[in-house]
Amino acid sequence: MAEQPTPADPTELTEAEASEQKQVRLGKRKRMLEEGVNPYPVSLPITHSIPEVVAAHPVAELEPGAETGDVVALAGRVIHVRNTGKLCFAALQAGGGERIQLMLSQANVGEDALQRWKELVDLGDHVFAKGEVVVSKRGELSIMVDEWQMASKALRPLPNLHSELNEETRVRARYLDLITREAARQTVRTRALTNASLRDTFAKHGFLEVETPMLQVMHGGAAARPFATHSNAFDTELYLRIAPELYLKRAVVGGLERVFEINRNFRNEGADSTHSPEFAMLEAYEAYGDYNSIADLTQELIQNAAMAVAGSHVVTWHDGTQFDLGGDWDRLSMYPSLSDAAGVKITPETPIEELAALAEKAGVEVNAKTATPGKYVEELWEHFVKEHLERPTFVMDFPLDTSPLTANHREIPGVVEKWDLYVRGFELATGYSELVDPVEQRARFVEQAKLAGRGDDEAMPLDEEFLAALEHAMPPSGGMGMGIDRLLMTLTGLGIRETVLFPLVK
Q: Which residues of the sequence carry a binding annotation for Mg(2+) 2 (predicted)?
């Protein structure tokens, strides 16, 4: 029974249509089992992959109708079939999107095998085929099949390969996106190349890759709301980590002077085009570095990733836009840039009342119960300055009261040596000269605890175990954190849900 064309979004099928197509395929599965044929064999006598065959036989160098004499056995997913008389055609696709044509002639496979092909094979099935590599009369690289076998029977139809999936289907059924869309497969490859490049750059600078706990007794390392859970084994409340920072710093205290980690973080906050509750994060710490040296390293990491992905510091986004990540990136200071944009001089000494009045006038909402002068400054800066930063820019020197893990600025009172890297108007990375004075760190934690008491659920708790480690002396260090998903956004121009292979959706 021939299948009817399916719409671009398989969820648009009525229940009756979906059930009918599935029942037809289930019937074919049942028939094969009754005939003693396993529609899901454990192994197959494969000798070659589709990409290997395509690479070994450049069709441009072969004449139409050519016979190579090479016999191969391969498997792939059927994404097109044309059954006509005594000669049937099918397109077989590998996981990476490479394709090859199958030609099933009654003279080669026999009448029974050809009839079984027509009756049992549907779009989406994985099939095994063995035969000679040839070129069809139309010039397509093909396998003249001698024998075939079902490799895995698909019980649901593929979407229409000539229409694009809608975004909702792409993120909810990423497997369909990967089957049908080369851009989806390329995004996965880009992510793999990016991570490999990051690791290579760190290795060249003598960094060690380490792993730190994702389940933590106390959350910390960032201003964020955590996910909470319960351990039955320990009968205690635990948190999914919001950042690996406090454990990586313990490693530096222990003598691992250059460390990094690429792993998952979890923040129980909103989701939008640049935020996801679960996200991949890179953090790194360099003993005897500072926020300037770690900014240099961050620029190198990103530019090397661009070279790995695009072969150039100029990357091409999915919509064709070119974006230049080359050269030395601008560095501007938060307070002077805010003053220039707002038309009012703002310094670390500006009273909170003046900042609140300016925020109200500008329509910037800040929770007055938990607000600090620094919180007003950061919110005002985002309102007046952030959206105008298109090229990569290090925004330097943040308010002290919003950065409890950062060293005081060496020259400017009330400011810490912290930067945020902005690209295309969103924050890509952050870096610090780390606060390594345990007495000052304890005082900062106490202030955070006061904010928590006033209702700030992003404030950090007082972490005695971390303070104990810090009291054993951590060398002066530079540290940085960067979202891997956002780095992919920078390299591809995609939204965050497109850069994550399986994003969290309702």
A: 427
Contact partners, residue 204, CB within 8 Å, separation at least 6: none
Phi first, then psi, for residue 303 (nearest 5°) are -65, -35
The residues near 246 (Cβ < 8 Å, ≥ 6 apart) are 220, 221, 463, 466
Contact 479, 432 (CB under 8 A): yes
Report how far residue 45's alpha carbon sits from residue 66's, in angstroms, rounded to the nearest whole number: 26
- Pairing of β 208-209 and β 258-266: parallel
What is the structure's pLDDT at 14?
64
Residues 6+ apart with CB under 8 A from 302: 325, 392, 428, 482, 487, 490
H or E element that contains 259 = strand 258-266
CB 136 within 8 A of CB 142: yes
Q: Which helix (H) or strand (E) holds 356?
A: helix 352-362
Q: What pTM was computed for the model?
A: 0.89
Q: Match 């992959």 to its residue by tokens.
A: 49
Strands (E), 356-460: 393-399, 415-423, 426-433
Q: Which two tokens stand for residue 186?
A: 């390329």
pLDDT at 4 over 50: no
3-state secondary structure of 352: helix
The encoded tokens of residue 216 equal 């933590």
- Do residues 113 and 70 make contact, with C-beta atoms less than 8 angstroms apart? no
Which run of H or E residues covers position 129?
strand 126-135
pLDDT computed for residue 6 by the predictor: 38
Q: What is the Cβ-side half-sphere exposure of residue 477, based on CA atoms within 13 angstroms?
A: 27
201: its two tokens: 């750059």
- Collapsing DSSP to helix, strand or coil, 175 comes out as helix
Q: Is 1 a residue whose pLDDT tops 60? A: no
Element (H, E) at 53: helix 50-56
* Residues of each annotated binding site for Mg(2+): 420, 427
Residue 205: pLDDT over 70 = yes
Q: Which of 107, 114, 429, 165 is nearest to 280 (CA)?
A: 429
Tell how far CA 269 is from the center of its chain. 18
Supply the pLDDT for residue 13.
56
**Cβ(103)–Cβ(144) below 8 Å:** yes
Helices (H), 394-437: none
Cα 407 to Cα 358: distance, rounded to the nearest angstrom: 28
Annotated binding-site residues read 420, 427
What is the structure's pLDDT at 3? 42
Write the DSSP symbol of residue 96.
Answer: T
Within 13 Å and on the Cβ side, how many CA atoms surround 17?
11
- Residue carrying structure tokens 């000539």: 162
